[in-house]
Each structure stands twice: as structure tokens, then as C-alpha cells.
Amino acid sequence: MAGLSLGVLASGRGSNLQAIIDEIEAERLDATIRIVIVDNPDAYATERAKRYSIGHMYIDPKGFISRDEFFKKIAEELKLRGVDLVILAGFMRIVRKPLIDAFPNRIMNIHPALLPSFPGLHGQKQAGDYGARITGCTVHFVDEGMDTGPVIIQAAVPVMPEDTEDTLSERILKLEHRIYPEAIRLYAEGRLKVEGRKVKVEGNRPQDGYIVNPPLRGA
Ligand code: GAR
User: Fold this and answer.
1) Is 177 a known active-site residue?
2) Distance, CA 147 to ligand 1 centroid (Å)?
3) Among 27, 166, 181, 202, who pairs with 191 as Cys (CB 3.0-4.6 Å)?
4) 123 alpha carbon – ligand 1 mean position (Å)
């Protein structure tokens, strides 16, 4: 399968990367991952890339005089491989201008909260500590802010009284693994149009862009 050329940036475990690989392998997503770039030499995402013979690369942020230079290097590597869409999959850095300018409205991120609530680190814990009843996850295009770009898909889950950060994260993660490949699929089908801060899903079916799951107990 060829389709859309993806470049994935990751810092850790890479379960979202795996969810995307699984959809490609199952031929439900017409895309090819050209490269997985990590900023952490121990990122398990690299092992996942190796398992599927996907090109991978560690770029050490400390090897650059500035963050802009680091992101310039990433943009160069992605361009070299003909990447169409950049996927941040647990990439724990704020993307800087050189990468954003190289891929305008062509970088996606997943965040474990319903943005604009609880941006930044530990979105799941922030929602639990705040006492939110509903939280979830968001796939959005990336701009220069922290988790501020136009929203593509959101999915909601209840926060249960007995939840810990781990149980809530696990419930959210299951939906992350559904909405990220779905957002990429919509992009691959040419159905996402960014209008200001809104993303229009063309050929909209009522369910596009929303997932609410699981139902509350007893419902
Ligand atoms: C995911 O929960 C993702 O939403 C979150 O990191 C985790 C990465 O997991 N991202 C952020 O918090 C970004 N602000 P993964 O490495 O298993 O995909």
C-alpha cells in the first residue's frame, strides 16, 4: 500500500503509532509511514518501527544550538522522504516555527483531554484533579501554541469517582487509538478543510468528528 506518506514523531511508548500501523496493516488506512523520528534514545516507538521495517531515526535535541534548529532538521528529514502529513504521537515538545512553516495545516497531534480544557502535560490527571465529570481526547492540527490548533475529532469518556490517573488514562487511550487513525483517514480522503480555527469535514456524516464512549453504567 502506498497512499498518503506519513512521518511520525514520538517520544515514548508509541501505542498511538501502533494503532496507526495496525490500521495500515489491516488495509483500512491507505497510507505508508516513511519515517519514525524520536527525540529520546529509549523510546519504545523505535522498537515498533523496527518490527515493521519502518525507517526510524533518533535526533538528539541537545545536538542543536536552538530549538528552531532542531525542528529545522526534523523538517528536512521529513521533506527528504516525501512526507505529506506529520503525526505527533506522544511527542512531548512544543513544535516550533520551522517545522510548522514547512508543513502548514499538515501536522496533527493527539491530546488526552477535551481541548481547550487541560492542555499541556498530564491532561488526564488535570481533568481528574479538577473534578471534571467528562473528559476525553482530541486530535487537532498543530499551530505554534500549546495544544491550541483547530480541532479535527474529539471523543468523550466519563470520569468515575473511583478513577485513578491510570484507569482514566487507559479509558481515554482506547479512544485515542480509534480517533487518531480516523482523523488521518479523513485527511487521506481529502475531506478535511481548515477554515480559520474550524475544521470542516466534507461529505459529513453525523458521526464524523464525534465519539462518545463508553456509555455510563446502566445506560
Ligand atoms: C498519549 O496519551 C497522548 O495523548 C499523550 O501522550 C500519550 C502517548 O502515548 N500526549 C500528550 O500528552 C501530548 N500533550 P503513546 O506513546 O503510547 O502513543
Assistant:
1) no
2) 12
3) 202
4) 9
